[in-house]
Amino acid sequence: MHVTTLATRLGPEFETVHLVGETDAREGSLVAEAEAAGATVVRVPCLKRQPALLDDLRAAFWLYRYFRSWRPAIVASHMAKAGTLARLAAYLSRVPVRVHTVHGHGLDGYFSKAQPCGYVGFEALLRTGPPPLVPPAPAPGVIPHPMRVVARK
Length: 153
Fold this sequence. Notes:
Blueprint: H1 2-9, E1 17-20, H2 31-36, E2 40-43, H3 53-70, E3 74-77, H4 80-92, E4 97-100, H5 115-126
Parallel strand pairs: 1-2, 3-4
Helix pairs in contact: 3-4
Protein backbone atom coordinates (compact mmCIF):
# COMPACT_ATOMS: atom_id res chain seq x y z
CA MET A 1 0.00 0.00 0.00
CA HIS A 2 2.95 2.34 0.62
CA VAL A 3 3.75 2.27 -3.11
CA THR A 4 0.20 3.32 -3.99
CA THR A 5 0.31 6.13 -1.44
CA LEU A 6 3.58 7.43 -2.84
CA ALA A 7 2.51 7.05 -6.48
CA THR A 8 -0.80 8.86 -6.03
CA ARG A 9 0.60 11.73 -3.96
CA LEU A 10 3.51 12.71 -6.16
CA GLY A 11 3.06 15.76 -8.32
CA PRO A 12 1.89 15.52 -11.93
CA GLU A 13 5.50 15.83 -13.13
CA PHE A 14 6.12 12.29 -11.79
CA GLU A 15 4.46 9.64 -13.93
CA THR A 16 4.24 6.38 -12.02
CA VAL A 17 3.00 2.97 -13.09
CA HIS A 18 2.40 -0.17 -11.01
CA LEU A 19 3.39 -3.28 -12.92
CA VAL A 20 1.69 -6.32 -11.41
CA GLY A 21 1.49 -10.04 -12.06
CA GLU A 22 -1.16 -12.64 -11.36
CA THR A 23 -2.14 -13.04 -7.74
CA ASP A 24 -1.62 -16.45 -6.17
CA ALA A 25 -4.75 -17.97 -4.58
CA ARG A 26 -2.99 -17.94 -1.18
CA GLU A 27 -2.27 -14.23 -1.14
CA GLY A 28 -4.24 -11.03 -1.24
CA SER A 29 -4.03 -8.23 -3.75
CA LEU A 30 -4.08 -4.46 -3.38
CA VAL A 31 -4.66 -3.82 -7.09
CA ALA A 32 -8.27 -2.70 -6.61
CA GLU A 33 -7.21 -0.31 -3.85
CA ALA A 34 -4.40 1.07 -6.03
CA GLU A 35 -6.77 1.64 -8.95
CA ALA A 36 -9.37 3.22 -6.63
CA ALA A 37 -6.68 5.60 -5.33
CA GLY A 38 -5.96 6.68 -8.91
CA ALA A 39 -2.76 4.72 -9.55
CA THR A 40 -2.02 3.46 -13.04
CA VAL A 41 -1.87 -0.35 -12.93
CA VAL A 42 -0.51 -2.44 -15.81
CA ARG A 43 -0.70 -6.22 -15.69
CA VAL A 44 2.43 -8.05 -16.83
CA PRO A 45 1.54 -11.12 -18.92
CA CYS A 46 2.91 -14.43 -17.62
CA LEU A 47 4.19 -12.94 -14.34
CA LYS A 48 3.28 -15.38 -11.57
CA ARG A 49 4.55 -16.04 -8.06
CA GLN A 50 5.83 -19.59 -8.64
CA PRO A 51 8.91 -20.08 -10.84
CA ALA A 52 8.04 -21.30 -14.34
CA LEU A 53 10.90 -20.95 -16.81
CA LEU A 54 8.93 -20.18 -19.99
CA ASP A 55 6.49 -17.81 -18.27
CA ASP A 56 9.37 -16.11 -16.44
CA LEU A 57 11.24 -15.58 -19.71
CA ARG A 58 8.09 -14.22 -21.36
CA ALA A 59 7.49 -11.85 -18.44
CA ALA A 60 11.12 -10.67 -18.46
CA PHE A 61 11.01 -10.05 -22.21
CA TRP A 62 7.70 -8.16 -21.84
CA LEU A 63 9.24 -6.01 -19.07
CA TYR A 64 12.32 -5.37 -21.19
CA ARG A 65 10.19 -4.16 -24.12
CA TYR A 66 8.01 -2.07 -21.79
CA PHE A 67 11.04 -0.36 -20.21
CA ARG A 68 12.64 0.22 -23.62
CA SER A 69 9.50 1.93 -24.91
CA TRP A 70 8.57 3.86 -21.75
CA ARG A 71 12.15 4.78 -20.72
CA PRO A 72 11.56 5.18 -16.95
CA ALA A 73 14.14 7.03 -14.85
CA ILE A 74 13.65 4.65 -11.91
CA VAL A 75 12.48 1.06 -11.52
CA ALA A 76 11.64 0.17 -7.93
CA SER A 77 10.76 -3.45 -7.24
CA HIS A 78 9.44 -5.22 -4.17
CA MET A 79 8.66 -8.92 -4.57
CA ALA A 80 11.46 -11.50 -4.82
CA LYS A 81 10.93 -13.14 -8.22
CA ALA A 82 9.10 -10.23 -9.83
CA GLY A 83 11.80 -7.91 -8.51
CA THR A 84 14.52 -10.08 -9.98
CA LEU A 85 12.85 -10.10 -13.39
CA ALA A 86 12.16 -6.36 -13.23
CA ARG A 87 15.72 -5.47 -12.25
CA LEU A 88 17.17 -7.72 -14.93
CA ALA A 89 14.90 -6.18 -17.58
CA ALA A 90 15.64 -2.67 -16.26
CA TYR A 91 19.39 -3.32 -16.39
CA LEU A 92 19.19 -4.62 -19.96
CA SER A 93 16.96 -1.65 -20.87
CA ARG A 94 19.52 0.73 -19.38
CA VAL A 95 17.19 2.18 -16.75
CA PRO A 96 19.57 4.45 -14.80
CA VAL A 97 18.26 3.78 -11.27
CA ARG A 98 17.14 0.37 -10.05
CA VAL A 99 16.08 -0.13 -6.44
CA HIS A 100 14.75 -3.27 -4.76
CA THR A 101 13.02 -3.35 -1.38
CA VAL A 102 13.17 -6.69 0.39
CA HIS A 103 9.73 -8.16 1.03
CA GLY A 104 9.55 -8.41 4.80
CA HIS A 105 11.09 -11.72 5.78
CA GLY A 106 14.73 -10.89 5.08
CA LEU A 107 15.51 -14.52 4.16
CA ASP A 108 15.51 -15.61 7.82
CA GLY A 109 13.36 -18.58 8.78
CA TYR A 110 11.30 -18.42 5.60
CA PHE A 111 13.27 -20.70 3.31
CA SER A 112 15.32 -23.87 3.67
CA LYS A 113 18.93 -23.36 4.75
CA ALA A 114 20.27 -23.64 1.18
CA GLN A 115 17.81 -21.27 -0.53
CA PRO A 116 19.03 -17.99 1.06
CA CYS A 117 22.57 -18.72 -0.17
CA GLY A 118 21.27 -18.96 -3.72
CA TYR A 119 19.19 -15.81 -3.40
CA VAL A 120 22.02 -13.81 -1.83
CA GLY A 121 24.36 -14.99 -4.60
CA PHE A 122 21.87 -14.00 -7.28
CA GLU A 123 21.34 -10.63 -5.58
CA ALA A 124 25.10 -10.06 -5.79
CA LEU A 125 24.91 -10.60 -9.56
CA LEU A 126 22.00 -8.17 -9.92
CA ARG A 127 23.33 -5.32 -7.84
CA THR A 128 24.43 -2.55 -10.11
CA GLY A 129 24.66 1.01 -8.87
CA PRO A 130 23.73 2.30 -5.44
CA PRO A 131 21.56 1.27 -3.68
CA PRO A 132 20.97 -2.22 -5.06
CA LEU A 133 18.88 -3.47 -2.17
CA VAL A 134 16.90 -1.69 0.55
CA PRO A 135 15.87 -3.80 3.54
CA PRO A 136 12.83 -2.57 5.46
CA ALA A 137 13.30 -1.42 9.05
CA PRO A 138 11.39 -3.60 11.53
CA ALA A 139 10.31 -0.43 13.39
CA PRO A 140 10.96 3.32 13.09
CA GLY A 141 14.51 4.11 14.15
CA VAL A 142 15.63 0.46 14.11
CA ILE A 143 18.50 -0.52 11.83
CA PRO A 144 17.42 -3.35 9.49
CA HIS A 145 18.98 -6.79 9.69
CA PRO A 146 22.15 -6.87 7.53
CA MET A 147 21.94 -9.07 4.43
CA ARG A 148 25.50 -8.69 3.10
CA VAL A 149 24.19 -7.31 -0.21
CA VAL A 150 22.79 -4.00 0.99
CA ALA A 151 25.69 -1.72 0.09
CA ARG A 152 28.07 -1.71 -2.80
CA LYS A 153 31.30 0.24 -2.58
